[in-house]
Amino acid sequence: MLEMKKILLIGSGNIATHLALKMNRQEYHISQVFSRNLAEAKVLANKIECDWTVDPKKIKEADITIIAVNDDSIQTIIKILPKKPTVHTSGSTSIDVFKGHFNDYGVLYPLQTFNKDLDINLEKVPFFIEANNQVFEKELYKLASSFSQDITILDSLKRQQLHIAAVFACNFSNHMLVIAKELIEKEDLSYSLLLPLIKQSLSKIDYLNPKEAQTGPAIRNDNKIISEHIKSIKEDDLRQLYSLISKSIIKTHGTSN
Fold first, then answer.
1. Which helix (H) or strand (E) segment is 47 a member of?
2. What does DSSP assign to residue 22?
3. Global pTM?
4. Residue ranges of the domains in the chain?
5. Sign of torsion over alpha carbons 224, 229, 234, 236
6. What is the phi/psi pair of residue 220, to 5°?
7. What is the CATH number that goes with domain 5-154?
8. Could you read off the pLDDT of 188-208 as tens digits, one per residue?
9. Contact between 30 and 87 (Cβ < 8 Å)
């Protein structure tokens, strides 16, 4: 019979929730959830039937600690944790943040956007791991394999570039939709008018290189339309944003005069 490993989970937000709910409980057991948010900690702990606390003094040791909090909090959290093998789930924070604090440490980074209220098939989410030694790397690979079928070993420098690319692909593209929604609704038009266009644009990435899928006035080098658009945009920051993105598209595709 396999010995079950105890996990101390730090955090109760989106990533922490999905990991907690999908972790293979035959191999790993979350023994405690620690969070600064009392309500969230209690809700998550009740879902997976484990202990929880918001008091650093009541944190209990486990075989592995998983830190799933925002990047700015990692350095502070480290100081109050048991001296046990520890990993964080950040895309940009270096593995070196753990130096001098733990003997075994690493990174368990999922390349996905998470919302605790939306179900995600964690088995298909790519996880990128890194460890400070080969023995712990094998343990971390085994842990990741308990909930994902897509695992890659990646160092901190490459992971940071991957995270930057993910910000462009996910966060920035979503912000463009936020702007589009605000612009069209200011004219008393429904955001639903844009949905067929948005869905078609996203569907093209299944069979086209993004560069090949580019359309619009910038790739056509239609300077008249671009100028008219910029003049008609009322907000200064949006005018600058429209201009910068148009220039980037023109430069990328070599369509400048």
1. helix 38-48
2. H
3. 0.89
4. 5-154, 169-213, 216-257
5. negative
6. -85, -5
7. 3.40.50.720
8. 999 999 999 999 999 998 899
9. no
